[in-house]
Every structure is written in C-alpha cells, then in structure tokens.
C-alpha cells in the first residue's frame, strides 16, 4: 500500500446480536455501522460471534458419552442462523461496508458443509473480502460446536489505514499465533472476544506493548433478554443459575463488555467500557507506532532468529486433495 493515512478513526461496537436471528442481527450490524460512519469512523469492529450468537451458558445438552434430542434441535437452529460464504446474507454484509464506506470487521459463525466455525471477516470499503480467519482452537465447550481453523487465516493485509489483522478471543493466548502476525508487520490488531474479565484487558495491554501495535478489543454487552425466551439455560426449570444461585432473569447480564483500544506502548487510547451498550471510538496516530519501536521491535531489533525460529503452515485445512 503506497499511501497510508497518518491518522485513523476506529470504532468497536459493544453490543449484542438478536441471538439465533440472523436477519435481525444483520440489521443491527447495519444500524451500528451507520452510526459509526456518521462519526467518521474508518474501521468498524464487531465482537466474536455477532452473527448471530455466542451461545452463552449452553453446551447443547452434551455430556461425555451422551447427547440429547433437545441439544441437537438447538444445534440445528444455531446452524440455520449461521452465515455461509457466499450467501445472500454475506452479500448484505458486503453491501453494508460499501454503503457506509468503511472497513468492516465482523465476528460471524460461519457454516460450511456440516461444520460451524468461529470466523472473523475483514471487508474493504468496497465490500471486498480482505481476510477471513477461522478461530484456530475453540475454547472449552466451544469445541463441541465449532470446528478448528487452519493456517491460511493467519493473515495481515495492507490497507490505506495500515496493516490490519488479528486473532479471536483466547487464541490471543497462543504466542506462536501472535508472533506470526508480528512477523507480517501488523499495525492494527483486531481482537473480537467473549471475555469480560479484568485479566483479559491486561492481556490486551500486553499484546499491544509486545507487538508495538494498536489493539482493538471488542466484546459484547449482552443480557438474557437478547436470547429467545425458550433458550434452554435461561428457561424455567433448567439447572443453570446465576453466580449467587438465583434463577436467570431477563435483565441479568451475561457479558459486561470491557471493550477498549490500546496504543503500542500498552497504554489505553480509550479506556474499557463496562456494563452498557456503546460504540467505543479512538483516533489512532501512525507516528505512535514509529515512536514505540525505537526501543523494541519483536521481529526486528528484539528478535534472535539465530536462536528461535517459527514455521507456519499456511495451507488450507482440506481433508482431501484431488489430482487428475
């Protein structure tokens, strides 16, 4: 990219989708993208699994050695509310980026054949797909319903706003994955997630300081009311409870947010926002990247390739290769 903007305005949308309702959730993407564009945002970021659900508190009635019909039925609903690439729903996402002239990063549940993937999509201002990254390792019970991504998604792309890439939620705790992005010269590091613990915010500061890059941490602010009334964990009679042992109520908070934007020295450009729906903005100044690298560059002045090396398999995760 020959010309890169000296200053970029970014937006992290801390909100919840209409869980298991893909058309309604896409309309929320349009609503918040329009609002961010009206504030002159260049890049708009949505959380992990925004289209159309992060399945809070539910392992789809699966235990070791047993599955239940209700869980299979809800998995089918989850699959039906996921996004295929290509599809009319995905084309709608592309049109949103075009309509509001923004770079658009959206966490989607992607469906391909019989498998779901937790995917982060980056679209250009013209709606072109710049990168598509599937989460390498789903965390804990996520592994039941999400497949694993491959190395072809470890991409950093050149754009007019800088070199953009990222990782999803706890794969940010994979040092080798982070290093693969640093080696590609990442400048704007997108971290859609579902972690509202204070320790997560500390991790975002560490990654920004380690990578000498800007980090956009984007999480949902989500309540029980954002889910269907018959969603099993929050239905009457289900064993799941709040931390104090009481039944779930519509106003109970599932994710407190904590979205924030961190500069390349590990300090906040925008402090974490908790317990409310909000678009979190920041102005990123490119010169800050250069200043931060005066004394530390993880793949340059502070690297020892004569001692440490990393090999990344960038091939797609195809099971079968056909030759004629």
Automatic annotation (TrEMBL):
Residues 8-286 form the CN hydrolase domain. Gene3D superfamilies: Carbon-nitrogen hydrolase. GO terms for molecular function: catalytic activity. PROSITE patterns: CN_HYDROLASE. Belongs to the carbon-nitrogen hydrolase superfamily. Nitrilase family. This is CN hydrolase domain-containing protein.
